[in-house]
Design a protein that fits this description.
The protein has 152 residues and is of the alpha+beta class. The chain is 44% helix and 12% strand. It has a domain of 106 residues. The protein has a 5-stranded antiparallel beta sheet. A hairpin with a 4-residue loop joins strand 2 and strand 3. About 14% of the residues have low confidence.
Length: 152
């Protein structure tokens, strides 16, 4: 059984992932090891201190995106797929996720899944997942979320 934060993060991913976003280049439901969008330019390397200093900004932009996405997902639940509003709400939800990915990339970070952010440390990634309070895990370049190891 995971921590309360991990359970909340999984619930947020489940809520948003239940909406059909498969056609979006930014989201593949429950595939957290796949980069959500291609990063451009050279990768920025972060020390744990630098990543931790940037985390409040990442947490803020992620919490804002989560709030907006949850509101849209709540509206979507009450609309049948044949209702024209369904496609409008679905597109708005995709736009929220895409905007979050762009904001994460603009900070030199990688969005590896829904509300999952990696900070390149030169040997792998410091890994943060909403709503974790701090960066407490890392993983190798090829290990992905499943290979997360607690930072000692």
């Amino acid at each position: 059984m995971g921590t309360v934060g991990e359970e909340r993060g999984q619930e947020h991913r489940r809520i948003i992932g239940s909406v059909d976003l498969i056609g979006s280049p930014f989201l593949s439901t429950c595939n957290y090891n796949r980069l959500m969008a291609t990063t451009s330019g050279s990768a920025q390397i972060f020390t744990l201190t630098q990543a931790s200093e940037l985390l409040p900004q990442v947490k803020h932009l992620t919490a804002d995106a989560v709030r907006r996405a949850e509101a849209l997902a709540d509206q979507l639940r009450g609309v049948t797929e044949d209702n024209p509003e369904h496609s409008l709400l679905s597109e708005a939800l995709r736009d929220v996720v895409a905007g979050w990915v762009e904001e994460v990339h603009a900070l030199g970070l990688e969005a590896k899944g829904l509300w999952l952010v990696d900070f390149d440390n030169g040997e792998g990634y410091y890994c943060w997942s909403y709503p974790e309070p701090a960066i407490t895990h890392y993983h190798g370049y090829d290990d992905g979320f499943a290979g997360r190891i607690k930072i000692q």
